[in-house]
Design brief:
- The structure is a single chain.
- The protein is of the alpha/beta class and 424 residues long.
- It folds into 3 domains: 61 residues, Beta Barrel (OB fold (Dihydrolipoamide Acetyltransferase, E2P)); 199 residues, Rossmann fold; 95 residues, OB fold (Dihydrolipoamide Acetyltransferase, E2P).
- The strands form 4 sheets. The chain has an 8-stranded mixed sheet with strand order 7-21-22-20-19-16-17-18, with helices on both faces.
- The longest helix is centred in the first third of the chain and has 15 residues.
Length: 424
Amino acid sequence: MIPSRATELEIYALATGGRGLARARDGRVVLVEGALPGERVYARLVREHRSWLEAACLEVVTPSPRRVEPACPYFGSCGGCDLMHLEHAAQLEAKVTWLREALRRLEPPGPEVLAPLPPWGRRNRLRLQLREGRVGFFARRSHRLVEVRGCAVAAAGIDRVLKALTRPLPEGGRWLELLAGEEDGGVWACLGLEEGVSPRQAEALVEALSAAGVRGVRVAGRRWACDQDHGLCYHRGGGGLELWAFPGLFCQVGFAANRLLLEWLQAQVGAGEGRPALDLYAGSGNLGLTLAAAGWRVTAVERARGAGEAFAWQAARAGLSGRVGFRGRDAARAVAELAGEGARFPLVVLDPPRAGAKGVMEGVVHLEPEVVVYVSCHPAALGRDAAVLAGAGYSPRGLALVDMFPHTGQVEAALVMRRGAQGA
């Protein structure tokens, strides 16, 4: 029986983040959790704002033909995936729409969709929460832990470790990040501790994770060696290039999708032939070392601790040390320094965090690049920052949607901006 306070709604679209859109009787937009376009549902109001409402779907009266049965028992309670009830092809169509809307003023081409298949078992880096020895994810828009014993979107090694955690972990852990390759190279972990945890408690946690099949555990904040015995190779490219991931250092969460992204990047920028390139928010070298292997002379900028060591080790391993330089700086500061030094870069690539590169793009313009390639996990931030380039005479020449986060409302994209009018 439907509660008396439930409202019947017609869902007309899918909002960024995966909630269905409807209209209330007073004309306000309603974001409905769990509803899909074309559906008629009963929903309950959960939060009211001045110009819009939030609601939860209680019952689907008329289902969408593109609704599917979620392949995970935790769907609906775990906050990790919010689109698993929508067929994968429709997820990609929705993300194309969201991306085009975010960039509508630029009128970019495409996008080209880069989607490795199948859309299951290919998340190679997964961050989980720990509470009182239990492992799981926070429920959507809350800090209530949903304990899990497996993950349908995670790589086989990660899923295997989660299934092996049949007993609660020793207390003292706050979060856990698991890292697994596509090959049988074992699973690595980075462990975040609660404040005041003793060395003995930390050791007990490490031992419990090792017993569950984790090859090595880095405690967050502690030094970690960057070499072949403390990480995994996630990409092999031309010229002997190997890219490695290490626990506690940023890497893309899906290695198969990242491989398509790197191939797309190389096709967009071509061979470097010794020309200079700037890699902002470089991490440990995913984009920058790929460019160096293609003949570019790369200056990499990254402020995160440990990234410089990982970058240098990988460059030396691939014989690229002579083509790369590293600056352990904030991106805005590094760009200002480089501009003050009179540096110029035909190519600038950047892969900033979700907040984007606000305050950096103006400095990038002063470096007079011919091409800027911007990789983003937040289309709104991408649109905002690309507008700075457009205002300086750059136009979009290539756009890719990367299926890095299947079954979620998160969008990964890459945009190419070239100096000069489009079609010139």
